[in-house]
Amino acid sequence: MSSPSSSSALHRVALCGNPNTGKTTLFNALTGSQARVGNYPGVTVERRHGLLRGRDDVDVVDVPGTYSLTARSADEQIALDVLLGVDDGGRPGPRPALVVVCVDATQLARSCYLLIQAQELGARCLVALTMVDEAGDAAPDPAALARALACPVVPVVARSGQGVDELRAAIGRALAEPPPPVPLRWTPSPALVEKLARVRAAFPDAWPVSDGLALWALASIGDDELDHIPPAVRAAVAVAAPDARDDDEAVLGRWAWLDAHVAPLAERPPDRRLTDRLDRVLLHRGLGLVVFAAVMFVMFMSLFAWADPAITLVEDLFAWVGGHARTALPDGVVEDFVVDGLIAGVGSVLVFLPQILLLFFLLGLLEDFGYLARVAYLMDRIMRSMNLHGRAFVPMLSGFACAVPAIMATRTMERQRDRTLTMLVIPLMTCSARLPVYTLVIAALFPVGSFGGLSTQSLLMVAMYGFSVVTALIAAWVLSRTVRPLRARRLPFVIELPPYRAPRLRDVLRMMWTKASMFLREAGTVILVCTIALWALLYFPRELPAEAPRYDDLIAAASARDAADEVTVLERARDQALLEHSYGARMGKAIEPAIEPLGFDWKIGVGIIGAFAAREVFVATMGVIYGAGDDEASLRDRLRDERTSAGARAYPPLAGLSLMVFFALACQCMSTVAVVKRETGGYRWPLFLVAYMTALAYAASLLVFQLGTLLGF
Amino acid sequence: MSSLADVGRHVPVTIASVDGERSFRRRLMEMGLVPGTRVTVTNVAPLGDPLEIEVRRGRLSIRRHEAAHILVTR
């Protein structure tokens, strides 16, 4: 990502505000279509910035929505870092010349709290008074508000663009004029003054000497997870020993001022009749849950079934391109690399796009409408019992379709801890890529029968779904109790239930496109490289032992005789022999002693290695290894008829169950790993994910197979 | 004096004090739940928790055990 801050002529303007104040819409209106989206380092919070439309010397930075600048975790610290101009990795950079604070006209006093904190830090502020259309004649008089807050106020309706030109002009004027000094709005006690002076004295040179920042340090530092706080400041805060009385002074002081000077400017409460009417249905004890189930069903079906034609289209397109490349290129390694490695690899990245686009389209609509906050409200009771956030419900549900978009959807949660915990359990949900594996194993290894009028085979499938939900919830509970960074904090879970608003299609589509392009850019490359590496593993060395039949000559002879069936058989036998001698198969044989106690032989081992590209690849790998090609019926027969050297069934139903348990719990999906790496900004969590899921899968399959054997199954 | 978790729906009350661990109570207070503020429990989630409250013209969702830290008077 390029960093415009390197140019000295550039003015930086920070755009901040509470959540749900129309900040994103305003940012889009101010910057037009040229905004850049990246990540803050180390935390998965989007860093959006772009040039102010019509001004190539003003860079607008979107600060993540927040109610207060006080921070306890690294992601909450971002707002302060932007206002202080602390750049990536804690280096001091240019401080923003201006802070534009979105103040919701319907929530006047509440949204001015953040403004007061920014002013205490010595920031030059400008108020964008949003939602004036919703407030109607209950909106405050901008001139009176400007006098009270000692900064310019511009009313805007970001959705329609009304007032945006005036806001841009006001930003230009504010940048040109010297800012008026804003005194503290409340009087600290002598004891607090002393503490502030002590902390201020320990500030590094790059920090502004302000009481506001000293207050921030007193409130934020101590029992925190903040980054790059100088040790001297930490030490000074420890000596000052701030307590709840200091918090009271500052917080109550600000509110007292707001109640006296700002709250009276909005005389009448906003009209919430429409929202109240909708909530009477959507949050109703019975009806609300019915609507909720219906909405979730639509989300689930859209990912599970409706995205299917688009997914098939992508697959067919790449098969078609691959087919043409195969005819165009001369036979050999290059041809196989281009078709099976490169083209198939790009296809395996793009195949995620339909679900990602669809999920974020629906999420964007629901978020903007105000329903996602209600989902958290409705589901909090259930999710909380597993120490999960109420908002984890939608991502976990999406996990039934595919973990990749589901993990990306964890961004709707504001805390890093909630996001990480959810990401770690989503891959346990039965994604659609497991279905072909379960279908094959159930059809091949389990006898047809019925139980209570239902076929045992379909009951097994349902059982696998149930198993995945239970393990995901238990895993969340255990992880949140054992892994320190995932422990539930005692912080309140207070979320806002915003008024219902019509979603703005342009913002939704823009967000959808941003997500998709970030996925392609950052996770896509990793997935492509892994696909090619796995292809090479199962392709090379491309040599057969000397005693093997000379397949190529035999195939040539058979095709000369026009014996098409014989050609197919010979080609399958050749591919089988080549795969058996590939590096991947050697790895499969090497791990055979380790997986034997689970009931697997080296052939399953190769299938498991190949499945790391995507779980459904297991079916194709087994097809090649059993010389069945893509004929699934014949593969099923061969799996059923496979015998060990002792003559017993190589895969009894118990081995099938063990295999399904393994597939349910193991993290054999490099796309998931790539997306977790991208979403957590490092290798720590993806490695942890692979380690814990593999250990869990191994232990559970071992238990199933050994216990089953012991019980005589 | 009772806590916010015990008051009935649509009964306006006034916050008397907020207790709990330091960063916990500060977070609540910064969202506007300070002593002297009028609060009303407007709804209870279908599963019995959390509560929907109206405070400073906004609607917030708060868990029962958190609301228990907010003492209120009629």
List strands and helices in order, with pairings.
The complex is a heterodimer of chains A (713) and B (74).
Chain A: E1 11-17, H1 23-31, E2 36-39, E3 46-51, E4 58-62, H2 74-84, E5 98-104, H3 108-120, E6 125-130, H4 132-135, H5 142-149, E7 153-155, H6 164-176, H7 190-201, H8 211-220, H9 231-240, H10 244-261, H11 273-282, H12 287-306, H13 308-328, H14 333-350, H15 353-369, H16 371-384, H17 393-398, H18 403-408, H19 416-425, H20 435-445, E8 450-451, E9 454-455, H21 456-482, E10 495-496, H22 505-539, H23 551-560, H24 564-580, H25 583-595, H26 602-610, H27 617-625, H28 632-641, H29 653-665, H30 670-680, H31 684-710
Parallel strand pairs in A: 1-4, 1-5, 5-6, 6-7
Antiparallel strand pairs in A: 2-3, 3-4, 8-9
Helix pairs in contact in A: 3-10, 7-8, 7-9, 11-12, 12-15, 13-14, 14-22, 15-22, 19-21, 20-28, 20-29, 21-29, 22-30, 23-24, 25-26, 26-27, 29-31, 30-31
Chain B: E1 2-3, E2 13-18, H1 22-30, E3 38-44, E4 51-55, E5 58-62, H2 64-67, E6 70-73
Antiparallel strand pairs in B: 1-6, 2-3, 2-6, 3-4, 4-5
Please explain how this structure is put together:
The complex is a heterodimer of chains A (713) and B (74). By secondary structure, chain A is of the alpha/beta class. Chain A is 59% helix and 6% strand. Chain A is built from 31 helices and 10 strands. In chain A, the strands form 2 sheets. A 7-stranded mixed β-sheet of chain A has the order 2-3-4-1-5-6-7, with helices on both faces. Chain A has a two-stranded antiparallel ribbon with strand order 8-9. In chain A, β3 and β4 (58-62) form a beta hairpin. In chain A, α12 (287-306) packs antiparallel against α15 (353-369). The two termini of chain A are 58 Å apart. Chain B has a single domain, classed as Ferrous iron transport protein A (FeoA) (SH3 type barrels, Roll). A 6-stranded antiparallel β-sheet of chain B has the order 1-6-2-3-4-5. The mean pLDDT of chain B is 93. In chain B, β3 (38-44) and β4 (51-55) form a beta hairpin. By secondary structure, chain B is of the alpha+beta class. Chain B has helices at residues 22-30, 64-67; strands spanning 2-3, 13-18, 38-44, 51-55, 58-62, 70-73. The termini of chain B are close together. The A-B interface holds A 67-68, 70, 72, 106-110, 113, 219, 223, 243-244, 247-248, 251-252, 255, 263, 266, 269-270, 272, 279, 283-286, 288-289, 373, 376-378, 380-382, 384, 490-498 and B 20-32, 34-35, 37, 43, 45-50, 52, 56-63, 66. β10 (495-496) of chain A pairs antiparallel with β5 (58-62) of chain B, so a sheet runs across the interface.
